Amino acid sequence: MLTTVLKMASKLNGRELFEKIGKPTKIVAPMVDQSELAWRVLSRQYGATLCYTPMFHAKLFATSEKYRKDMWCELDGDSDLDRPLVVQFCANDPEYLLAAAKLVQDKCDAVDLNLGCPQGIARKGHYGSFLMEEWDLIRKLIRTLHDNLTVPVTAKIRVFPEREKTLEYAKMVLDAGAQFLTVHGRLREQKGQKTGLADWDIIKYLRENLPTDTVFFANGNILYPEDISRCMEHINADAVMSAEGNLYNPGVFNTDYIDDKDKTFPKVDKIAREYFEVIKKCNGSHASRIAMKSHMFKILRPFLHHHTDIRSQIASMNAKSTLDDWEEKVIKPVEKVVTEIYADPSIQEKDTIVTGSQELWGGAYKTIPYWRCQPYFRPVNGVTGDKRVTENLKEKVAGLDNSKKRKADQPSSEESKIKETKLE
């Protein structure tokens, strides 16, 4: 009891915690069944400096031993392998949230409340972004953790269409006790095929209008390593969080090696092998084994389009597949194919990354060989996301230009008076 009291008394505020964990700037986002232990370990090897766990369901974590064992193992939060670490929960009941958080507070640096999940399961379960209108409940959830945990509480939010409402929302979350604030610059409705661009300008607006000592993380639009510094500079954020960008290319965080394509856009055979070796190291993690198939599909995505036989092998894997099965049917065949690709006498010419011209969104798209990890642009009606974004921005700019032109074509008040006089 005395130890708990002492820990509570010495609990760090946001800026103190940020300093203690090394001022991390590159963060693996909390993702359901995707930011589990093995993926965090791999991402740290490629430059991530802070990781969040997947979103855990607080009530299940607190009450179901099976769920807890499936989601969490002894190596999660290990001081040598898996820190700094923030554990994220979704919840709508303060008591269950606190009970769950107390089970992990000694194995993490902070506990985060998910206020951003936009998926149907969050609507059905009444958590994540579907609490955005219930400010009293959010305040109580955060305050309960703030007042009773030995580690700080943090929060991740989405934005409202209105800037002023979003600012008041963010202030409320901070006033309730959140020590880090992560802002995903998308509306609740922006998900799946409607994802679209995150709004960096509204994130910047929040940064400029919240207390200057707020530890502030930005989330959204990270495709390439260069986007991290571009985002931090535009928003003046303390750090940048990546979800999908990291899932398809862990090298997105390797900003210290921006000109080294093997580190920033690693070959798929190398990533597959490294990830597989991490899985073996974390073999006690049920969550890591369950997530393995999904991760393999993502990191090998551009490659599998050209080698459908290997894609079929991954698809055939199930809970009964052993690590030996994975190595013989997936890892080694990928390595064999990439070795053959690099035996091509013209490989130096083919193995190049071409950066396009600057786009309206501020960055530039890259053309990357299919045997290297790269962003994924989700197609809708046959049109990929990068092309939709570009076309939408062109239409927006054209609309603004036309508006200005119409305004310029309108007569001034003096001109109107002259015309009226002539008509009279």
Automatic annotation (TrEMBL):
Protein origin, superkingdom: Eukaryota
GO biological process, one term: mRNA processing
Requisite cofactors: FMN
Gene3D superfamilies reported in the protein's UniProt record: Aldolase class I
Residue ranges of every copy of the DUS-like FMN-binding domain listed in the record: 28-336
Matching Pfam families: Dus (PF01207)
Name recorded for this polypeptide: tRNA-dihydrouridine(16/17) synthase [NAD(P)(+)]
Family: Belongs to the Dus family. Dus1 subfamily.
EC number: 1.3.1.88
Swiss-Prot/TrEMBL catalytic activity: 5,6-dihydrouridine(16) in tRNA + NAD(+) = uridine(16) in tRNA + NADH + H(+); 5,6-dihydrouridine(17) in tRNA + NADP(+) = uridine(17) in tRNA + NADPH + H(+); 5,6-dihydrouridine(16) in tRNA + NADP(+) = uridine(16) in tRNA + NADPH + H(+); 5,6-dihydrouridine(17) in tRNA + NAD(+) = uridine(17) in tRNA + NADH + H(+)
A single GO molecular function term of this UniProt record: tRNA-dihydrouridine16 synthase activity
Enzyme class: oxidoreductase
UniProt xrefs under CDD domains: DUS_like_FMN
InterPro entries for this protein: Aldolase_TIM, DUS-like_FMN-bd, tRNA_hU_synthase_CS
Coiled-coil positions: none
Lineage: Eukaryota, Fungi, Dikarya, Ascomycota, Saccharomycotina
Keywords from the UniProt entry: Flavoprotein, FMN, mRNA processing, NAD, NADP, Oxidoreductase, tRNA processing
